[in-house]
Inverse folding.
């Protein structure tokens, strides 16, 4: 859904064979079917990015189906908002697992195919304005998005000799299902209206 879906659709329009990986197999299949109906080539893959075995088998399936992996878009993410003093350690670890561990595991699995014969490829991480700026209630998210910059920079140095490049895309405020979910949550926590969350926090405080 959201940015990930639109990236998949645009890559397909550009002629790429696209694999949509999602925890929700039905959701992945729906996007793949939309691409195929438009004349493109796509498959849906069930994947929990925090599970190394699931990531490895999913990536290998894509490589087997399409013959190679040229582009990895690391886009999995959720949002849990709370002030630091109330942020549970379980929620903190969940956020890091999906955003950072997931990026690491999918990268590692894809590199096996990109490094083969130095064929190369591109790894694109979905960062955020929060890769550079902070925002109240989002300690885990901001930390994770900063972490993607570090991972991408290391990959740029290590991957160069194998013709692999890395990038971090850092969009600002985008009205996706993930954002829509957190607007009422932040309004409740901060004691302000949802409109004020958008104007004063999401736009005024970060972008």
């Amino acid at each position: 859904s959201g940015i990930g879906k639109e990236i998949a659709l645009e890559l397909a329009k550009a002629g790429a064979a696209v694999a949509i990986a999602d925890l929700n197999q039905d959701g992945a299949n729906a996007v793949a079917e939309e691409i195929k109906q438009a004349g493109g080539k796509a498959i849906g893959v069930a994947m929990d990015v925090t599970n190394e075995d699931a990531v490895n088998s999913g990536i290998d399936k894509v490589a087997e189906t399409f013959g190679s992996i040229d582009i990895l878009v690391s886009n999995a993410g959720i949002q849990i908002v709370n002030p630091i003093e109330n942020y549970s350690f379980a929620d903190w670890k969940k956020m890091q697992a999906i955003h950072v561990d997931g990026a690491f595991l999918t990268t590692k699995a894809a590199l096996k195919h990109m490094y083969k014969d130095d064929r190369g490829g591109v790894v694109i991480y979905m960062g955020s304005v929060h890769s550079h700026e902070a925002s109240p209630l989002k300690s885990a998210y901001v930390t994770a998005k900063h972490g993607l910059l570090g991972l991408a920079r290391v990959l740029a140095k290590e991957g160069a000799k194998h013709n692999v490049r890395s990038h971090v895309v850092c969009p600002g405020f985008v009205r996706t299902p993930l954002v829509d979910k957190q607007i009422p949550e932040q309004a409740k926590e901060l004691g302000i209206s949802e409109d004020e969350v958008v104007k004063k926090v999401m736009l005024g405080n970060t972008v």
Q: What stands out?
A: The helical segments are 2-13, 25-37, 52-66, 89-114, 139-159, 177-190, 194-203.
